[in-house]
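User: Hi! I'm a student and our assignment asks us to look at how structure tokens line up with a sequence. Could you show me two examples?

Assistant: Happy to help. In each example below, the sequence comes first and the structure tokens follow. Example one:
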Amino acid sequence: METTAFSKNTLHLAIDMQRLFAEETVWYTPSMADILPNVLKLCKARPQETLYARFIVPQNAGAATGRWKTYYERWSSVTRDAIDPAMLDLMVPLVGLADESNTIDKATYSIFGSPGFDERLKASGVDTLIFSGVETDVCVYASVLDAVDAGYRVILAIDALTSSDQAAHDAVMTHLVPRLSEQVETLSTQAILNLWRDEAV
């Protein structure tokens, strides 16, 4: 599919670039250090058109609902009873760019699970979403599928995405994303920056 210039209603979503995943917890994703420079480039290029998602864990497994209880029984070491609350913060280079107005907290994989999120986008006229962050095969992919279902143009910044499971990351990018080729585009960070510069008037 030919890539066209972005509309002026394009938004960048930086998914879960948090200390919880960047530091040595059971969810440690070492390759976050590799993608951080590109995520940072996207954030700095359009600070007013960037939102930061944070995955917020429950106080403990008992505070979760449904099958999330079972999930957090397994991952009890990352509930708020067990970790420093500061681990939910964004990585240090991003902290200075984020505030309450551009940070979306979510208790689900998909950012669309955050109450009022889709309504916020529609009220702002957003029609295009650029995704960066972690994890490609979990929170990013869940968010992408919801964005596709909602009819947004979806762009994946291929060198600004990663996972703690490289094989799962590769499977999404190599096998799953191409199945949605009419609805999901993949571009490098530099290509995105170039298109932003040349965005449609």
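Example two works the same way, sequence first and then tokens:
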Amino acid sequence: MRKTLIIGANGKIGRQLCEKAQAAGEPIVAMIRSTDQQGWFHERGIPTVMGDLEGEMRQAFYGCDQALFVAGSGPHTGPDKTLTIDLHGAMRTAELAAEFGLSRVIQVSSIRSETPLAGPAAMRPYFAAKKAADLCLAESGLRHVIVKPGRLTEEAGNGKLTQDAEKSDEMQVSRANVAEFLLGVMQAREIGGRHRKAPVFTLFDGDQSVSSLLQDAAATV
């Protein structure tokens, strides 16, 4: 069955992605941690399933053919949550995706993940967790895509992006544009790879359409 499990659905990008997918008629199920989070999704007709990155989440994978990991511990938590959510949560997602035979995992990382020590001190645990999660996914043998947004903003999206940091204004990207790109990747199921040959997208606000970026990637598959 064609259905994407959205892990991190209640986050800032996750909610926008779920709304866009629902509007586009793309089958999804939003993984949420508690019934307190259900109202927002049910008001919009978005299906939900219970799952906790720090607890039980296996049941969330039933009936899905791919998973999209856009979860994050957030800026107001400590390194402990960064480890259990951003790193271990991503690792568990890969393990369960393999167990259930999912066709692909889409994982949201960060542009700073390659060089964690180059970032601000307060953010280094986050960047290190993202780097480790990306490496674990690459070594899992799963077919996957990694998306690395720049500095996230709350600006309105226009669906225009670039992968060239030199063309970017302060290496930033709106959450709305990231959500639009993730929807495009969800729909483009032909894009993906295994091990170190999987596509990695760096995202900044720019002047190229989502469809153009994905067409370029599909041409190399």
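Here is something you could point out in your write-up. The helical segments are 12-24, 38-43, 79-99, 124-139, 175-187, 210-218.
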